[in-house]
TrEMBL record:
Membership in a protein family: Belongs to the Mg-chelatase subunits D/I family. ComM subfamily.
Membrane-traversing stretches: none
Protein name: YifB family Mg chelatase-like AAA ATPase
Organism ancestry: Bacteria, Pseudomonadati, Pseudomonadota, Gammaproteobacteria, Lysobacterales
Organism: Stenotrophomonas bentonitica
Pfam families linked to this entry: ChlI (PF13541), Mg_chelatase (PF01078), Mg_chelatase_C (PF13335)
Length: 500
């Protein structure tokens, strides 16, 4: 009888909990059994491992083999444990030194030839392994992703034989980050006219506020939304690492060219609630988590499933998506900036100067009612985007201000916020508003009159205060002034009937 212990990592949401692979060889008829709540793909690893060992010229023990994946109550899925299981069998059978495995963790799927294949969730595994003081060995296909964990010792291999040879010599090469070629971001200069919408976009970027664009088809709503990432402050190292970790666990992989660029997600309006919030039998992050520290753009807002939109209400407030299943509950980060776009009516032309809209007031209200009041309440800025005069679209028409110039003002305003409260204005908690958003007696009366006249909720009033604080920061004002309060109230466009 002999026993070997190998370290690996599972994937649970955006975390990488430690898994110990215990391999026990005993007498009896040849049989391999895997226990410890393995999924089907994990149970099948016994056949992949057997073929890989034989192809690598190792001996597969003709004994009773029991493989325990501990802890037993943690679900295990995928082929990520193949390499660790193979090494455990070799160590238990005396074909490699069992002591050489202690300072490593192993992740990788085995081909029948013994070749190592990449798996998802390597980045959080590398970070967790470094925290436990061990090196991580992964497939060469995961090299670029694993290298993002700068304080981790990650080694790469292409075959099982390479790993076994290097356990004694320690000659495996380190993971190397890819040469990043930054991906160009659309420039705000491309947007002609639309001064009010451009101003709202700048305010949203400066304070991290949610934005709704209301306008006729082809007026530039999608164009404006796609320019928001280009005027946002660059992501910090921690924010970039959080976004990369979520992308790693989603199975979509990481684009090295977008490192330090904020995510921009634009799912189609037919996406389900699970696709948006995350889920599945083994929960994976949804679109709102993939947009963490970035922008989530929802076009044609009334066309979305009502259920899909309503599940966003709690994450918008908390910054966390909680996915509960019978056996487990996962929490995914979801601190995103929502930008939504919608037409003013079913035909799209209500309020247009052409007068082509034939929708009745009842039809218009029913169309807008597809988006619930509580969700609309959580959007800070409601802005109408009018159709441009054709003369403004001529080639010789003046271009708008470029993204770099706008970003400079946004970064300056955001720096003031971080110095004052340590967070963007949109994230200020209600009890913090009295300290950072003080109003004069006259401005307080102006706000209260607007709340009463427009029948706004307390949440809407707080959002007006946050927007006014951002306007003051953009204007380099120490205190919120009357003009800032008035402009912030003006951005509650749909609370005033949409202006159409």
């Amino acid at each position: 009888m002999s026993l070997a212990l190998v370290h690996s990592r599972a994937r649970a949401g955006v975390k990488a909990p430690a898994v110990r692979i215990e391999v026990f060889l005993s007498g009896g008829l040849p049989h391999t059994q895997i226990v410890g709540l393995p999924a089907a793909a994990v149970r099948e690893s016994r056949d992949r491992v057997r073929a890989a060992l034989i192809c690598a010229r190792f001996e597969f023990p003709q004994r009773r083999i029991t493989i325990n994946l501990a802890p037993a109550d943690l679900p295990k899925e995928g082929g990520r444990f193949d390499l660790a299981i193979a090494l455990g069998i070799l160590a238990a059978s005396g074909q490699i030194d069992a002591q050489s495995l202690n300072r490593y963790e192993f992740l990788g799927e085995l081909a029948l030839t013994g070749e190592l294949r990449g798996v998802d969730g390597v980045l959080p595994a590398a970070i967790a392994a470094a925290g436990d003081g061990r090196s991580l060995i992964v497939a060469a296909a995961n090299s670029e992703e694993a290298a993002l964990a700068q304080h981790a010792d990650v080694r790469i291999a292409r075959t099982l034989l390479e790993v076994c040879s290097a356990l004694e010599s320690g000659t495996l090469p380190p993971a190397v980050a890819a040469a990043t070629v930054p991906v160009s971001i659309p420039d705000l200069r491309d947007v002609r006219g639309q001064l009010q919408a451009r101003r709202a976009l700048e305010v949203a970027a400066a304070g991290g506020h949610h934005l709704l664009l209301l306008g006729t088809p082809g007026c530039g709503k999608t164009l404006l939304a796609s320019r928001l990432p280009g005027i946002l402050p660059a992501a910090s190292e921690l924010e970039a690492l959080e976004a990369a970790t979520i992308a790693s666990c989603s199975g979509q992989g990481i684009d090295a060219g977008r490192w330090r660029q904020r995510p921009y997600r634009a799912p189609h309006h037919t996406a389900s609630a699970v696709a948006l919030i995350g889920g599945g039998s083994h929960p994976r992050p949804g679109e709102i988590s993939l947009a963490h520290n970035g922008v989530l753009f929802l076009d044609e807002l009334p066309e979305w499933s009502r259920h899909a939109l309503e599940v966003m209400r709690e994450p918008i407030e908390s910054g966390v998506a909680v996915v509960s299943r019978a056996a487990r509950t996962e929490r995914f980060p979801a601190r995103f900036q929502l930008v939504a776009a919608m037409n003013p009516c079913p035909c799209g032309w209500a309020g247009d100067r052409s007068g082509r809209c034939l929708c009745s007031e009842e039809v218009i209200q029913r169309y807008r009612g597809r988006v619930s009041g509580p969700l609309m309440d959580r959007i800070d800025l409601h802005v109408e985007v009018p159709r441009l005069d054709p003369r403004e679209l001529r080639d010789d028409a003046p271009l708008g201000e470029d993204s770099a110039s706008v970003r400079a003002r946004v970064v300056a305003a955001r720096d003031v916020q971080l110095l004052r409260s340590g967070k963007a204005n949109a994230q200020l908690l209600p009890f913090e508003l009295s300290a950072h958003c003080r109003l004069s007696r006259e401005d307080q009366q102006l706000l209260e009159d607007a709340v009463e006249r427009l029948q706004l909720s307390a949440r809407s009033m707080h959002r007006i205060l946050r927007v006014a604080r951002t306007l003051a920061d953009l204007g380099h004002a120490q205190d919120i002034e009357t003009a800032h309060v008035a402009e912030a109230i003006g951005y509650r466009q749909l609370d005033r009937g949409g202006g159409t």
